[in-house]
Design goal:
2 domains; 10 helices; single chain; 228 residues; 0% strand
Length: 228
């Protein structure tokens, strides 16, 4: 297929999933074509992968934000390690085979999330920031992808409403923990220190603010469910 790149423009939209992965694997030689193939690949399988991520994450008591995170991590692994081999596939249907391959990656990302609080590539703790708004929480999880931003914003709109009535400090504590706390584990020490410094609170006070904010949001969500 590499010869086709030299001879004519490639029709990425009509490529099979396995062919798109093959082009992605050429990112060193043909970076532009690889990026185009990856964009089409993500668009084609994104909805199915996110749905599966939500189902899998539910079993581990993770929420929709965490499900979207592990889905994004899965696509990141596809970009970094495009090792799908159609000859080893467990289904003759290419789309099914590709999804089965990605679900194994997805499961690994969920396990990783439980072990080290994130499935994303390691980031220097100095680069971590306190989260002050829902928009910052969204950007934390999906970066600058406008489509994903809009999708997650729609999902978190109810959280925005639920925080009405909370003080600014309560909101910041709540959102920061939503960004960094996974499976009840502690948030990174650098973030804990930044919260204490920025809000001028002790760690014990931050725990109280967190409990109060969680209770406030939970009560709001329960009231919404009752009125439905």
């Amino acid at each position: 297929m590499k010869q086709e790149i030299k001879e004519e423009r490639m029709d990425f939209e009509n490529m099979s999933g396995s062919d798109l992965i093959e082009v992605i694997s050429w990112k060193e030689e043909y970076p532009q074509e690889a990026e185009q193939a990856f964009t089409i690949f993500c668009s084609r399988y994104e909805q199915s992968l996110i749905q599966k991520a939500e189902i899998y994450c539910l079993k581990y008591s993770y929420n929709e934000v965490e499900a979207l995170l592990v889905a994004n991590c899965t696509f990141a692994r596809v970009w970094k390690y495009p090792t799908f081999d159609i000859n080893k596939a467990k289904s003759k249907n290419i789309d099914t085979a590709v999804m089965l391959w990605m679900l194994r990656i997805l499961y690994t990302q969920i396990i990783l999330l439980g072990k080290i609080n994130t499935c994303a590539e390691p980031t220097s703790e100095e680069d971590l920031s306190v989260i002050t708004t829902v928009d910052e929480l969204i950007e934390f999880h999906v970066g600058n992808d406008l489509e994903k931003k809009n999708e997650l914003k729609a999902r978190l709109e109810i959280i925005n409403s639920a925080m009405l009535g909370l003080s600014e400090k309560h909101k910041i504590v709540y959102l920061t923990y939503k960004a960094y706390e996974q499976s009840g584990k502690n948030i990174p020490r650098s973030i804990s220190k930044k919260l204490q410094d920025q809000l001028e609170l002790t760690q014990n006070s931050i725990r109280v603010y967190k409990l109060d904010a969680n209770k406030h949001v939970l009560n709001y969500l329960e009231q919404i469910n009752v009125t439905k």
